[in-house]
Amino acid sequence: xxxxxxxxxxxxxxxxxxxxxxVARRLIGARLVHHSPEGLTVGRILETEAYLSSGDPxxxxxxxxxxxxxxxxxxxxxxxxxxIYGVHQCFNVVTGPAGAGEAVLVRALEPLEGLELMRARRxxxxxxxxxxxxxxxxxxxxxGPEQDGASLLEGALLVCPPERHWRRPTIDVGPRxxxxxxxxxxxxxxxxxxxxxx
DNA sequence: GCAGGGATTTTCT
DNA sequence: GAAAATCCCTGCG
Length: 198
Fold this sequence. Notes:
Layout: H1 20-27, E1 31-36, E2 39-51, E3 79-84, E4 88-94, E5 103-113, H2 115-122, H3 134-141, E6 157-160, E7 171-174, E8 188-191
Antiparallel strand pairs: 1-2, 1-6, 2-5, 2-8, 3-4, 4-5, 7-8
The chain binds a DNA duplex (13 and 13 nucleotides) through residues 49, 51, 58-60, 63, 66-68, 82-88, 90, 92, 105, 107, 133-136, 139, 176-180.
């Protein structure tokens, strides 16, 4: 095993800004880095879902800003973290532009660094269960209300490019999960052939 | 291994 | 009052 190097440089702002479906596809392979007070955790994004600002009744922004979804209307490159079912946190990458209300839900990560901290936060036995779902990865990465509205291009929480040697997998496209409206839209993106997805 | 239900906040009807 | 971008535990095969 070669030593793991913690990524330091975030992706360019343009990668996180634009049509949410395009950003959702581009995010596959990128690394999510969180320097929390408890320690460092890093995970590779392997599954995403796009939520569009128009023509998408499943999108939280569809009915305008509220106290909960306010950060979804920030410019691309910010985090939108919200509580679902009164229990779990869901982490999104806002894709902007400011005022649009468009974002990408991150659904699964491959744990790369800080696995001991992730296990402690999650309390599970199998590493496959650490980040294989939106609520799971938010817990493992220590993401909550404090990260809602935070920049992903500077600070403690960063989206960084894949390693140069990382080989891009085939990306499967399909319907989104857990929604009742606009179920058929092909806005879910998944890396093929990994054990880390939901 | 799989189906069923509970937890608990925000929002809308 | 009910559903929601979910997860986990229980009971049963």
